[in-house]
């Protein structure tokens, strides 16, 4: 009878140990995932901050007009547009 109890306890201990190692490995995977998500979150927070700054910048009509003129050669009616082309290098 004692042999069966000891055998049963050994089997239970082996089972519990295997479950512990499996959970520990799974925990390691989750820690890596959290670290990766943390890095991605920081990157997205920086990008979000830059977008908010751009939004605030372009809400000013003067800044928006300046960017339109620079990027799309936009000009007001009655204004003359002068485009300078760099000369050829020798």
UniProtKB/TrEMBL annotation:
> Coiled-coil ranges per the record?
41-68
| Keyword vocabulary terms for this entry | Coiled coil
Protein name in UniProt: Septum formation initiator
Q: Which organism is it from?
A: Candidatus Harrisonbacteria bacterium CG10_big_fil_rev_8_21_14_0_10_45_28
